[in-house]
Task: structure prediction
Amino acid sequence: MSYKKITPSPIAGSLWFQATMTLPAKGRGCHLITEHLEKVEEIQQFKVGLCHVILLHTSASLTLNENWDPAVRQDMEMMLNSLAPEEGYRYTHTCEGPDDMPAHVKSTMIGSELTIPIHNGKLTLGRWQGLWLCEHRNCAGTRKIVITLSGAPFDKN
Result:
């Protein structure tokens, strides 16, 4: 096991920030949205902290995964469709169309919130990690997320 302190000692002070962001409508599938989150300028004010993101919808999801090869997102969509197909099950919740109940199942499996560390004013992601919006509906509209930042600011000295 290896343990390395990123901050030599606790940092005094606490900083909080919260905003909503409306993501543009996307077609069904897994979409890389890291660049949208990185546009939140307030992240740069944090020496160390957390970025919490929650999606305010029940038929889409958020996850961290491969950010380089788009084929991974296509394969993920294929696998999700095989795990929660539109056909072959007798869903009772059908009033919003055949893709809605499978979308709720996929959202539950993947989740609708993430917490990402902040270090030196940047999101701490692995080299190949990116934030995905997984859109599970055939014709969804815009999606809203709430971004909450908390942590310690840079020293003002």
Q: What stands out?
A: The chain has three helices and eight strands. The CA atoms of residues 25 and 140 lie 6 Å apart.
